Amino acid sequence: MKKSALLFLMFALIVPLVFADITIKSEQNVYNIGNKIRASASILQFNNFEGLFKLTLSCENYNLQYFLTPISLEANFRSAVNVPEVVATSPMLGNCIIAGDLLTNDNIVIEEKNSNNFAVTNQLTVLPVNSRIISLPGDIIQVTGVVNGAFGSNVLKASTKIVLDNNSYVIDAIDGKFNLTLQIPKNVKSGKHAIEISASDSKNNIGSAEVELDVTAVPAYVKLDLSSSQILPGSKIGITSSLYDQADDLVNVSIDLELTAPNKDKVFRKIAQSNEKFDYEFSQYAEPGIYVLVSAYRNLLAQSSINITTVREVKIKYENETVLIENVGNIPFEDELTFFLESKLKKYPITKKINIEPGKLLSIDLSKEVPLGIYDIKIPIKEGIEPVKEKLDEIVKNVSESIQESLSNLLPEKENVLASDVTIHDNRPGYKKIAGSLSSVRGTLVGADGLLAKNPLTAPIVLVVILLLIVFHYGRKPIMRLIKRKKDDENNGNEN
């Protein structure tokens, strides 16, 4: 019983010495390099105490015992300890605590306590006023903001570097504030750019931020590209119209296109996408000359010329006793053409003045030009004339390759066979038949070996008889119609 009472007395004497309440608290939860780390500490002891109080700064890779002081504590009274400041340095980077130890004068730890966690960092906070700026090329903008320490207070002074594309500007942030007036280049690329802002102070604390710069494209000029500036009618031409901005970059918009003919008529007007190629096919009969192509976007214009060359050409073919002449060129075809119809007995030249508009067809009925017979039909070789030969009911194109050569060398005019051994009926009007017969008779009678040359006394009688026969043969039908019409008129008169 006496032994138990002794142990209890010893425990009662020791407990007041062992149990003490230590409070340690850092002033901030984060510090930049160069900041002074401030902390407060207090101790509550249940009995009077004389000893030592020690503080140790403990970081991830760093320990520093920076405070040791004698301490005298009054029982049941909280005593504040005046804790000195310590400057944060780069070895302290990371998470830290302040450990407090209550020691006897014999250096025996009777109580220990840690402060709250806090951090030491080299990071600054850069806060732009505007996180996004929209501008046009050539605009003047303001890049403004503040530079704060890790705990939120403004940095007294920091060097601030602002970079846009390949251009950099350095200004000082005074009391944490910076302001840069910046002119956007006139030829800046459209779209999004990053304005990079970086700041550093004298203690090597650093921070950065970005501002998004959105440059609106400004159309600068229109460009026209043609596959050719001179083409034949009936050909295709490739057209590409493109709109470029201030930085010579393509702008994807719709562009107006208008083509005007030499006579000022509008050929077409359409809307095309920028930089999109399309083909336009001119008519085979397109008017020759300079066509003007205009590409427009708002008040921006581009103009190009297209020269349609002159084509003077006709195609000639034979079909059903008729010569067909088609103007396949793009100008009126005016010329005098001579066709030759040649039989075994005679060769008939037929000369016609031709005037055909582009795309039109002219027909010549040969049965109204020559007597009944079997003929070869020939046409002269001439520039701008393309004969098409008919054989076995199939039309085959036969283009003469020697036209230019024969003309340039001034060779005698040659002939092309358009059709061979074709039957031509006689559908000539009466006057042509009479004239043809008289011409034939005249050759028979008047020639050196003619009948009249051999019998001059009977010549008048023979001539009159032949003439009457020809008139009766070719003119009886018109005469009979005339007599019939006269009788009808008389009958009508009697009835009245």
Radius of gyration: 58 Å
Mean pLDDT: 84
Spatial shape: rod-shaped
- Biggest sheet features: 6 strands, mixed
Overall SS class: alpha+beta
Distance between the termini: 184 Å
Task: Report the top-level CATH class of the largest domain.
Answer: Mainly Beta
CATH topology of the largest domain: Immunoglobulin-like
- Total strands: the figure is 36
**CATH architecture call of the largest domain:** Sandwich
- The helical percent reads 10-25%
User: Into how many domains do the coordinates divide?
Assistant: 5
Q: Quickly count the helices.
A: 5
Which residue ranges are poorly predicted, with pLDDT under 50 across at least 5 consecutive positions?
A: 1-5, 7-18, 390-413, 443-449
| Range of strand content | over 45%
Q: Would you identify the CATH H-level superfamily of the largest domain?
A: Macroglobulin (MG2) domain
What does this structure look like?
With 496 residues, this protein is α+β, with helices and mostly antiparallel strands. The chain folds into five domains: 120 residues, Macroglobulin (MG2) domain (Immunoglobulin-like), CATH 2.60.40; 91 residues, Immunoglobulin-like; 87 residues, Sandwich (Immunoglobulin-like); 115 residues, no CATH class; 46 residues. The protein contains five helices and 36 strands. The strands form nine sheets. Strands 2, 5, 6, 9, 10 and 11 form a six-stranded mixed β-sheet that branches. It has a five-stranded mixed β-sheet with strand order 13-19-18-15-16, with no helix packed on it. Helix 3 runs antiparallel to helix 5. The termini are far apart.
